[in-house]
Each structure stands twice: as structure tokens, then as C-alpha cells.
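User: I would dearly like some help making sense of a protein record. This is the protein in question:
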Amino acid sequence: MVSYRVAIASTDNRHVDQHYGRAESFLIVDVNEDGSYEEIEQRFVTPVCMGGYHDSEKLKKATEVLLDCNFVLAAKIGPGASYELKERGIACFELPGNVADSIKRLDGYIKLLQELNGTI
């Protein structure tokens, strides 16, 4: 059973290695209750980073592409993008590395929070 959906900023769909604002696409994965995951699709966006600043309209459009996701993983994410995602109910994390390892770290964090909140 699917627990949540993650958008991953990746250049090769194997590594979380892309800055959110420079990403041209996001790997979308569904993570199951047991921590396993399934790759769903690759979604293409127009990069929003303009070398130190971002275009607000492009940032909103890039975020709209990810509205069905609960989380975003990126190698780096700036405060503007982080704020925009948070406003839309999407949590973001800087978790660079192998996709499987980054998802495992995210899943462990989520399960720890659930345990601390008594929801497991």
C-alpha cells in the first residue's frame, strides 16, 4: 500500500544530485508502508534558477507540477523554493546521494516522527 509520493531532483534517476531550481525533471516515486518504492514517471519542468535569483512565475509553475507529491528531495534547495513548496503542503529535504539511500533516510525520518507522535 502506498504511503506517500516523492519528487526527486536527479540528472540520471539514480542519484539525488540536482539543485531544485536547476532541475529539468523530477523522478516521481511512490513509497510503500514497508519502505519499498516504485518509480512512477519522470516529470519535466522549466528550470527556475537564474544564477542567484529565480523567476517567481516559473517557480509557481514548477511547484504546480508536483502538487500530488508529499515530499521533494534535492541536493540543494533555496529558501524561495522551500517556502513555495511549504505553502503548497509539500515538505522538502536536502538529501543528496543514491536515490534508494535517500528514500531510506526519508522513510526512517518519517517513521521516527510517527513514532514520536504516537501515530504508529
The first helix runs from residue 56 to 64. The beta strands are 2-9, 15-16, 25-32, 37-44, 71-74, 91-94, 97-98. The radius of gyration is 14 Å. The helical segments are 56-64, 79-87, 99-116.
